[in-house]
Amino acid sequence: MTAHILVIDDDPQERRSLKAVIESRGHAVHVAENDQAGLELLRKMRGEIDAVLLDLKSGEGNGLSVLSFLDRLRADVPVIVQTAESGTDLAVEAMRAGAFDFVVKPTSLERIATAVSNALKLHENDPSGRPLKRGRSASVAFSDIIAASAGMARVLELGRRAVQSHLPIMVEGEAGVGKEMLARAIHSASERSGRPFIAVNCAAIPHATIEAVLFGRNDQDGTDEGHLGKFKEADGGTLFLEEIGDLPLHAQAKLLEAVQKGEIVAAGGRSPHKVDVRIIASTSKDLIEEVKASRFREDLYYRLSVFPITVPALRRRKEDIVHLARAFAERFSAEQRLQRPLSLGSGALALLTAYDWPGNVRQLENAVFRAVILAEGNELTERDFPQVAAQLPGRAGPFATALPGAPSSPAAEQVSTVAGAPFIAESGRAPAAAPANVAASANVIVSTDESGNVRKLAEVEEELIRFALKFYRGQMSQVARKLGIGRSTLYRKLKDYGIDPDDPQKHAA
Ligand SMILES: Nc1ncnc2c1ncn2[C@@H]1O[C@H](COP(=O)(O)OP(=O)(O)OP(=O)(O)O)[C@@H](O)[C@H]1O
């Protein structure tokens, strides 16, 4: 089948070469010389482009504008970014923003052709939605929410309690933490479950039309059925107002009235209509700050935040990562009709746990999805998560060759076999979840002494600080940040333990 590939590159020579190599694989190529022209083509050919190959230095927007455009569009198009060695930071940013893959120039045309084939493979396997924002089933039960950490157990407890009440709920948390999933679970467990759950992303609707979208619009002959408005659509059910902090002030005033009186007035109309809607709002912004800056009405804030639930970022509940990754691997294996679900090797699990996941559960879900689609064996290994490996400092993994800008050092070499995170092991043996080679590595912190007793906290702390100094090559602010302590505390501890930051392995005489 001929696929349509859009190449965005400002260098005419590069465009010609890329066009030739992609066409030689039987695909049709469309070229654009900058982001703007690329966006235009995407708009015109919406639905027809199967993958985008984007040079990150194209145009003024540094290519990232195309990614945010795709994001806004929730377009079903994998994007492969190309960048020069000096632009690898940008490439990593792009991966976070949802790019499918990246290649660092100079690279072989073969590597690019393979990246395109992989992207098409992914696209073919999931034509329903862009991997970054996968669709979710309408009905979500609390039992579908994977929660192994104490933080998430608390969220579920609050969620279950919220089911019983009729109060508005405010779900707070970074993008991708699972706010909508929680809102859906609350709806499904409530007596409103037989009625609609309507989600509206306030950040995605132009200010000029938001009132009509929410409250409907009256045409001259009465209410236009085509513009019922989300409140009416949700009547008897739940209205999920995503990114409520982005609601413009004029719509906030109308929303306040709706919440206070249970009545709405359609845009252009005068008479109020009764509605019975439970509101669940969500925000990734600090709404108190928005109130202080007069961008959000204080009275509305208090009305909506009667029952606040904060979903913690994934990096603050790392215990969930392994469980989530396994569940996603199982789900995607079943979706791909694999004979047996793909398992996750201990190296892969350690890698996934070491990473901070700025895009939270959604990013993890996409990483596992990509890995399942492209996997060749029965088990997912570190090699199946090259983007994650590339973003861990001091890591020389399979990706190091593709990412010349990645940090490398003797420390990096030493930790490369153990996925970037120190394991806490019992004396003399590696933990079950750790790779077999972990015990032999410098990346193990032993938790018991030779007589089998738990070691002193101070000893373990000293060892961890020495490890972190080596791992981050003596970059004190990074070491302090990663250890979760202030710089002055770090300096004090160095002094207490007699650690020389320039030679952390040297023991004081
Ligand atoms: N605890 C969880 N268990 C299983 N899947 C989860 C969990 N949390 C999130 N997900 C999945 O992660 C993805 C992102 O979740 P969701 O859309 O609910 O996040 P969000 O916080 O509403 O994101 P955004 O603010 O960007 O819209 C979804 O596909 C969801 O199914």
Helix content: 40-55%
Mean model confidence by pLDDT = 79
Strand content: 5-15%
Helix and strand content put the structural class at alpha/beta
What is the CATH fold-level name of the largest domain? Rossmann fold
Overall structural domain count: 3
Question: What is the CATH architecture assignment of the largest domain?
Answer: 3-Layer(aba) Sandwich
Radius of gyration: 26 Å
Strands side by side in the biggest sheet: 2-1-3-4-5
Tell me the total number of β-strands.
Answer: 18
Give a short account of the largest sheet.
5 strands, parallel
| Apparent shape | globular
- Name the bound molecules: adenosine-5'-triphosphate
Tell me the span between the first and last alpha carbons: 70 Å
Q: Please, how many helices?
A: 20
Give the SSE map.
Blueprint: E1 4-8, H1 12-23, E2 28-32, H2 35-44, E3 51-55, H3 64-73, E4 79-84, H4 88-96, E5 101-105, H5 109-125, H6 150-164, E6 169-172, H7 179-189, E7 197-201, H8 210-215, E8 218-219, E9 222-223, H9 230-233, E10 238-242, H10 249-261, E11 263-264, E12 273-274, E13 278-283, H11 287-292, H12 298-304, E14 307-310, H13 319-335, E15 343-344, H14 346-354, H15 360-374, E16 379-380, H16 386-391, H17 410-415, E17 423-425, E18 444-446, H18 457-471, H19 476-483, H20 487-497
Parallel strand pairs: 1-2, 1-3, 3-4, 4-5, 6-13, 6-14, 7-10, 10-13, 15-16, 17-18
Antiparallel strand pairs: 8-9, 11-12
Helix pairs in contact: 1-5, 6-7, 10-12, 13-15
This protein binds adenosine-5'-triphosphate (ATP).
Pfam family, one: Response_reg
Main location: cytoplasm
GO molecular function, one term: sequence-specific DNA binding
